[in-house]
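cron nightly-structures :: item 1 of 1
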Amino acid sequence: MLGGRPVARIGYGAMQLPGPGVLGPPRDRAVALAVLRRAVELGVNHIDTAQFYGPGVANELIHAALHPYPDDLVLVTKVGAERDRRGGWISAQRPHQLRAGVEANLRSLELERIDVVNLRLYGAGRDHSHGAQSADLDSQLAEMIALRAEGKIGGIGISNVNIDQLRQALPAGIACVQNAYSLLDRAGEPLLELCREHDVAWVPYFPLGSAFAGAAKVTEHPAVLDAAAAQGATPAQIGLAWLLAHDPHILLIPGTSSLEHLDENVAAADVRLDAATMAVLEVLAPVGGQH
């Protein structure tokens, strides 16, 4: 469940649809539209996006490919950031900026209500953008609650949080948490445990390891490669299958601009890892730490 609505456990993240660096038009618009339509054909009914992907590009493609939207499709966006003229990330954390971000998503997606909107915080975790937190969390949550009361958003998510911020946010009624988490990066395990306790969906970004230089890649680990060979699966499918098996609160939104990779990602839901394989994979990274 996500924001009170049933979703398949493997969704789709639209961040890779725009051009390089999440900027500009896609390399091939026809392929980008085909990926979105194919995702829905495969049963994906949870798409994660943001107005600042492109900016505006991912939402425009989603609208062009899928509007009017299927009744069961859950669209999730995020606010709290913008792009500068050079394409850098800047914070947009003040309540009026959060509201403006929601309104921009509503316009570009042509919606009256967004199913879930994630409040993306700055400074709580491993952040690779510039701009400081410019509003206290209580005032941010108050604005998100007001937007929900007005019917502009259905559920409130929160992203890039530490455990104290998550505890502070939970009374607002949190639908999901988006933090970095993977087979090789389990620093967020205490937050996942808190989500489990409060029946909150955990929607990890970087589910196969960070895209930043020097970070461990799940698909390159020898144990993952061995498991993939034994299962007749791809290493990416093993990494995603481990996440699904690890906790039922985990929902996945792997992104791709490739039809082939999309099919592989969705098919990871059918990969079943036996107890021996799970035992090997579970200890690749310490609970609460990184490989």
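cron nightly-structures :: done
The radius of gyration is 18 Å.
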